[in-house]
Amino acid sequence: ADGHYDFRTREGLQIHCRAMRPMQAGQQAAVMVRPEHIQVLPYGQAADNRFEAEVVDTTFTGDRLHYSVATPDGSRMRLSVQSSAAAGSILPPGTRLAIGWRADDALLLT
Coil, strand, or helix at residue 35? Predict the structure, then answer.
């Protein structure tokens, strides 16, 4: 195998990710994606992992803008973007959007 797996969360999200060592079907694990690797995707843009979500909360921390988002199944995630890149287009709570990341940016942990 190439070290890539399809992982299903308890909430039902299907995530394409990589692992540092071989995994067995049904093995307990978690997926880690750094917040800066999760992107807000323009309409129609593809990604290895793409999910519809809704902004729950927005936080500024210096040069970063952090969004807490929830997918329709209740999964929560945080994403982080450069404040300068988001200037003038801050997404308020309740905004629906698509988020995504590359399979290589999602690490399966045991």
Answer: helix
